[in-house]
Write a structure and sequence with these properties.
By secondary structure, the protein is an alpha/beta fold. The protein contains eleven helices and ten strands. The strands form two sheets. It has a six-stranded mixed sheet, with helices on both faces. The structure holds D-glutamic acid. The site of D-glutamic acid has 17 residues, from α3 and α8.
Length: about 260
C-alpha cells in the first residue's frame, strides 16, 4: 500500500498557513494535519506554562493520529517549549525560528515577534551567533490577533497602529502570523522582509524517514469525523483540527495559501 507522509502542523491560529503553503509544494501526495488553536490565540502574551500545556494537547492529538513529524509552525511555542516536548513524543518535532541567519547578511535587522518570543533565551542565543549585525527586537502585542481579525473577521488592519518606525536595513518576521502580511510590512517599512517558512518546511520533510511504516494504523476518524474538516489540494489532503478548525478550513478553501502575501 502506498505510504503517504503524515505531517502535523501546529499554530495558535492561522499563522501556520505560511508554513503549510510551503509544504504543499511537495511533489508526493501527503496528508497534513493542521491544528489551529484560534479560540485561545494569541499565545504571545500568555504564561509559559499555559503555552506548554496547550502545545502538549495538540501533540497528544498528533500522537493518536500517528504522524511522521510535527512542525511547530509557531515561533512562540518553539521559543517556549520545543526543547522540552521533543523528549516527550515519539516523532520528530521541527520548530520555527526567526530567519536571523539570513538577516546576518545585512548591517542591521528589526526582529518583529511576540512578547514571549522577544524575551526568550532562545532568541537571545540565536542573535548572539551573528554579532556583525545589529538586531533590534520589536515585540508586538496586538499584531498576531490583528492578522487573525483581518483574515477571519474581515477587520481592517492598519500597520500604523502596530509598527514603530525603524532605521534597520531589513526585517525578520519572528511570528508566522506576520508572514501572512509580509508584503504589507515590507511596503510599510520600505525594507526587505525575511521569513523562515520555506526553510522550516524543508527541514520537516528532511527529518521524515521515507519508507518508515511503523506508525499506527490510520485512526478511524481520519475518514469519518475528521473528513468533515478536510480539504484537497492537488495530491494533498489537509485535515483541520483544534479549536479553529471550522474557520481555518473555510479560510484554506478561500485559497489563502496561494495569495501573494
Ligand atoms: N503564530 C505564532 C508565532 O509564530 C503566535 C502568535 C500568537 O498567538 O501570539 O509566534
Amino acid at each position: 500500500m502506498e505510504k503517504r507522509i503524515r505531517l502535523g502542523l501546529f499554530d495558535s491560529g492561522i499563522g501556520g498557513f505560511s508554513v503549510l503553503r510551503e509544504c504543499l509544494t511537495a511533489e508526493s501526495g501527503a496528508d497534513f494535519f493542521y491544528y489551529g488553536d484560534n479560540a485561545r490565540a494569541p499565545y504571545g502574551e500568555r504564561p509559559e506554562e499555559e503555552i506548554g500545556a496547550f502545545v502538549r494537547e495538540a501533540l497528544d492529538e498528533f500522537a493518536l493520529i500517528g504522524v511522521d513529524a510535527v512542525i511547530l509552525a509557531c515561533n512562540t511555542a518553539t521559543a517556549v517549549c520545543a526543547d522540552e516536548v521533543r523528549g516527550e513524543y515519539g516523532f520528530p518535532i521541527v520548530g520555527t525560528e526567526p530567519a536571523v541567519k539570513s538577516a546576518s547578511a545585512y548591517p542591521s535587522a528589526a526582529v518583529l515577534c511576540t512578547p514571549r518570543t522577544a524575551e526568550s533565551a532562545r532568541l537571545r542565543a540565536l542573535i548572539a551567533r551573528f554579532p556583525q549585525t545589529r538586531f533590534e527586537v520589536i515585540p508586538s502585542k496586538g499584531l498576531a490577533i490583528a492578522v487573525e481579525d483581518f483574515y477571519l473577521r474581515r477587520k481592517p488592519l492598519d500597520l500604523r497602529d502596530h509598527l514603530p518606525k525603524t532605521d534597520c536595513a531589513c526585517a525578520v518576521l519572528g511570528c508566522t502570523h506576520y508572514s501572512l502580511i509580509r508584503r504589507k510590512i515590507s511596503t510599510y517599512w520600505e525594507i526587505p522582509v525575511l521569513d523562515g517558512a520555506r526553510g522550516t518546511a524543508r527541514r520537516a520533510f528532511g527529518v521524515i524517514k521515507v519508507g518508515r511504516d511503523d506508525h499506527l494504523a490510520p485512526p478511524k476518524n481520519t475518514n469519518d469525523c475528521l473528513g468533515d474538516f478536510s480539504s484537497i489540494w492537488g495530491k494533498h489532503r489537509i485535515f483541520f483540527l483544534g479549536s479553529g478548525k471550522i474557520g481555518n478550513k473555510a479560510l484554506f478553501d478561500s485559497n489563502i495559501c496561494f495569495k501573494n502575501f
